[in-house]
Write a structure and sequence with these properties.
By secondary structure, the chain is mainly α. It has a single domain, classed as dinb family like domain (Four Helix Bundle (Hemerythrin (Met), subunit A), Up-down Bundle), CATH 1.20.120. It is built from seven helices and two strands. The longest helix has 29 residues.
């Protein structure tokens, strides 16, 4: 029986998340210029996140990656799937913001800063998690996912974020307002969104690594059954 309140199993769609098309927003106009310092720092963070993501599921079986350490806790695959789903939605918001900024000629070399609310949001998102949050039902991942899909998908996502950093370079990131993933009433500027996304990914990669380090992680076997864990 399907978990109550769980969205339809979309594991077959995760391959598409791992083969996302590169952005074409003004790509023909984009010149090879050095990233401003703040975007260079974010690029380094996304590259480091990609390197960490490679190690999370490396050498694990399907059963191990989909094993849940306890009731209400996510598996490694669910942590990665959650990031893939949320990240894909964020890309759409980022692309729309970049398109608007270019059409309105909103340019600025920075520097940019986090507002009071965004600063608190990032601080409470960074690991170690200070308290648990309810996951938006849109971002609750399938409970059984192929290791050969979710791993490459999260690595590809970092490449996508870096591609957007390059497209956003030189734009007035403070003026571009976008909806936070899963929170349409919460508006962040584009710089704040990039910083939040990096913090959010680190949070769930640490969560996935803690599952990998769990001494109860089975050597082999099927995924552990259980209800929909929704607390992060």
């Amino acid at each position: 029986m399907a978990d109550r309140g769980r969205p339809p199993d979309t594991s077959h769609e995760l391959f598409e998340l791992g083969t996302r098309r590169r952005p074409d927003i003004g790509a023909t106009e984009q010149k090879e210029t050095s990233l401003i310092a703040q975007l260079r720092e974010l690029e380094s963070e996304f590259r480091e996140i990609g390197r960490t993501a490679r190690t999370v599921a490396e050498g694990l079986s399907h059963g191990q990656v989909n094993w849940r350490p306890g009731s209400g806790q996510w598996s490694i695959a669910e942590c990665l799937g959650h990031l893939n789903i949320m990240g894909s939605e964020a890309l759409s918001s980022i692309d729309a913001g970049i398109h608007e900024a270019r059409s309105r000629q909103w340019y600025s070399p920075g520097p940019f800063r986090l507002g009071f609310f965004a600063n608190n949001l990032v601080r409470t998102t960074e690991p170690p998690a200070r308290w648990k949050r309810n996951a938006n039902h849109k971002f609750v991942p399938p409970s059984d996912q192929p290791v050969g899909v979710v791993g490459p998908a999260i690595i590809d996502l970092q490449d996508q974020f870096i591609a957007r950093l390059r497209l956003a370079n030189g734009l007035n990131l403070a003026r571009i307002k976008v909806a936070a993933p899963g929170r349409p009433l919460l508006r962040l500027n584009l710089y704040e969104l990039f910083v939040f996304l990096a913090a959010h990914e680190r949070r769930h990669l640490e969560q996935a690594l803690s599952v990998r380090r769990n001494r109860m992680l089975p050597k082999a076997g099927p995924a552990r059954p259980g209800g929909t864990p929704q607390r992060l």
